[in-house]
Amino acid sequence: MNEFELIRRLTRSLPANAAVVTGAGDDCAVLDLGVPDQLILFKTDAVVEGFHFTRETPPEKIGRKALARCLSDIAAMAGTPTAALVTLGLPETFDPDFVARIYAGLNALAEQHQVAVVGGETTTNPGGILISIALLGLVGRGKQILRGGARAGDAIFVTGELGGSLAGKHLDFAPRLAEARWLAEHFHLHAMLDVSDGLAGDLRHILEAGQVGAEILQSALPVSRAAKLRANPPGSPGSSHKSAALAALTDGEDFELLFTVASRDAVKLLDAWRKKFPELKLSCIGKIVAGEGILLRNRTGTHRFAASGYEHFRGRGQ
Amino acid sequence: MNEFELIRRLTRSLPANAAVVTGAGDDCAVLDLGVPDQLILFKTDAVVEGFHFTRETPPEKIGRKALARCLSDIAAMAGTPTAALVTLGLPETFDPDFVARIYAGLNALAEQHQVAVVGGETTTNPGGILISIALLGLVGRGKQILRGGARAGDAIFVTGELGGSLAGKHLDFAPRLAEARWLAEHFHLHAMLDVSDGLAGDLRHILEAGQVGAEILQSALPVSRAAKLRANPPGSPGSSHKSAALAALTDGEDFELLFTVASRDAVKLLDAWRKKFPELKLSCIGKIVAGEGILLRNRTGTHRFAASGYEHFRGRGQ
Predict the structure, then answer these.
(1) How far apart are CA A17 and CA A33, in angstroms?
(2) How far B235 CA lies from chain A's nearest CA (Å)?
(3) Residue B158 and residue B193: Cα distance in Å, rounded?
(4) Where is mean pLDDT largest: A103-117, A241-255, A301-315, B237-251?
(5) Is residue A142 predicted with pLDDT exceeding 50?
(6) Which chain A residues in 50-69 lie under 8 Å from chain B, judged by CB atoms?
(7) What distance in Å separates the CA atoms of residue B129 and residue B159, rounded to the nearest whole number?
(8) Sheet with A189-194: strands ordered across
(9) Is the CB of residue A97 less than 8 Å from the CB of residue A139?
(10) What confidence tens digit (pLDDT) does each residue in B138-162 have?
(11) Which of B23, B198, B237, B287 could lock B250 by a disulfide, CB 3.0 to 4.6 Å apart?
């Protein structure tokens, strides 16, 4: 049983109450606690030594990343983050300065986004450092963008560039908070999330939630320079052993926005985006279609892109 | 540097914003997000294998305890819990049924208190199981009870019995939610918290926050049967090597309410409590005095009860 199967099992019937607007399964939980015109966004996310960072990672970047991941989830709902709690699991012996530097990185990003850090705790965690962030945010009532609204015919957009995040971006990425709020304010977004597990995997969340499929144009994928560098020459030391396109489709931790709008809005949206955010790429990478799963169009034809992605794609000689 | 010193250092200057009513340092953070008549309570708490439970603990009780500890913090503010997120750190191999049973125990307690479980995540944590709960609650605007309001002359009360929690209560305790709300509704409480680190240690939080001292009457301490059993005969196998009174003062994880009220309210409060909660003990254990620290009165006189508690107390032959 993998993580997704376990989560599916655990979240099948969770306790609910009248405050719940959207429970488990979206980027954030959405709660109605009686704020006029606003709903509450509620999210936790953890980073773990050896998986999301190493002992060699500068501690400021560890703290920054822990908060940035959570901010990205608030962005994916088109919300505004408000207050965070920090849970810090530490080995039995640790350097207090290391911990202070984790907080310094976290606090600097919090200040930048006017997020209050209102406490938390430190606890012993024998296996290594673990940081869990709990984050509260606000979103205009009815303005939250969920994963489940994609419709056949929608254009699919993604911000920034994809793939190769491990080369550095996973520690330095900017949560797309202002961009998401601007999008939700000016356009009727049907579905949105942040790309954390790789484009193909996260696109599937949108497809499953909307009971639709997608056709992706490989040449339209905004492949990052890092993905290209790591892919070329294949097999050389430091190579990702993935083609650049496969890296863009399956590498994790991009933390870009993936969203769909009606195709009639696509050109207007691209034009307005380029005026508003001239320095951040926005790419239309394909369209939502009836059916299920992902079809990938490239110069050799149209191929079904399998759930696991990697092996199948390589098997086709990409 | 111990945990308390580290936390003091880390929380010296945290990012804040206009939503913060009470930041780090109380049982919960208190936020004003614009709910008319209500403030938001926000808390996280983690339990870790080997510290708060073992592999032999029934998993239902692990899940129950993880949530109950957090509920107790909402109780300590006289609030009502609303929604929880669950972060589950798991070793690289685990039994899915074990995890399902953790959730079963947690969900049952959540249902009992009408708390919605709105998601969370599972993540790999190589050192063992870690469960962090993030909890939101509500409290009437201005009705939250903080740690900092104790005044010289106040009577000091504690609910239930103290000491020996490790014998079983630490897995089965009932968060005092209804009791705390009733107290705050009917009496002017000056300071309140939940006893998690031992009576003496937590009383010191109230004393430091209020810049006052306390005089505790040893004979008034509600010593639990478990503390008495473990203390007697001293030195025998299974003994805690503490006197029962010392256990009541310094054992952790009692999760009882500790609060102060003006002395003129003390008798009325005790009378009303006994009618309302006839099955739960409420004890007046002493009074707030000018000065600092804890004075302990027993049949040998009045002694200063030192910060570390244990060694000093034993040194006095108690």
Answers:
(1) 11
(2) 29
(3) 10
(4) A103-117
(5) yes
(6) 50-51
(7) 31
(8) A189-194, A257-261, A155-159, A282-289, A213-217, A293-298, A301-305
(9) no
(10) 999 999 999 999 999 999 999 999 9
(11) B198
Q: Which helix (H) or strand (E) holds A208?
A: helix A199-210
Whether this model's ipTM surpasses 0.90 comes out as yes
Contact B160/B280 with Cβ under 8 angstroms? yes
Residue B311 has pLDDT above 60, yes or no: no
CA distance B217 to B289: 13
Q: Which domains does chain A have, with CATH numbers?
A: 3-140 (3.30.1330.10), 155-315 (3.90.650.10)
| Contact flag B107-A6 (C-beta cutoff 8 Å) | no
- CB-CB contact of B240 with B246 (8 Å): no
> Which residues have C-beta within 8 Å of that of residue B68, sequence separation ≥ 6?
B109, B173, B174, B175, B255
CA distance B37 to B32: 10
C-alpha pair distances (Å), B235 with each of A277, B31, B162, B231, B317: 72, 49, 21, 8, 14
Of A124, A202, A246, A289, residue with least CA distance to B6:
A124
- Taking 80 as the threshold, does the pLDDT of residue A7 lie above it? no
Confidence at residue A5, expressed as pLDDT on a 0 to 100 scale: 75
Between A2 and B256, the more confident residue is: B256
**A313 vs B163, residue with greater confidence:** B163
- Inter-chain residue contact A118 with B20, CB threshold 8 Å: yes
Separation of alpha carbons B157 and B194, rounded Å: 12
Please report the pLDDT score of residue A125 as a whole number: 94
B143: how many CB neighbours lie within 10 A of its CB? Answer: 17
- Confidence at B53, pLDDT banded by 50, 70, 90: very high
Task: Report the candidate in B199, B179, B205, B209 with the shortest Cα–Cα distance to residue B269.
Answer: B179
- Average pLDDT over chain A reads 91
Q: Which residue of A has its CA nearest to B82?
A: A19
CB atoms near residue A3 (< 10 Å): 13
- pLDDT confidence band for A45 (50 / 70 / 90): very high
A16 and B116: CB-CB below 8 Å?
yes
| Burial (CB count within 10 angstroms: exposed 0-12, middle 13-18, buried 19+), residue A279 | exposed
Using left for φ > 0, alpha for ψ between -120 and 50, and beta otherwise, residue B75 falls in alpha
Residues of chain B found within 8 Å of residue A83, distances taken between Cβ atoms: 17, 19-20, 29, 31, 42
Phi-psi label, residue B183: left if phi above 0, alpha if psi -120 to 50, beta otherwise: alpha
Structure tokens, A112 = 């930048």
pLDDT at A316: 29
Q: Which residue has the tokens 């608030």?
A: A74
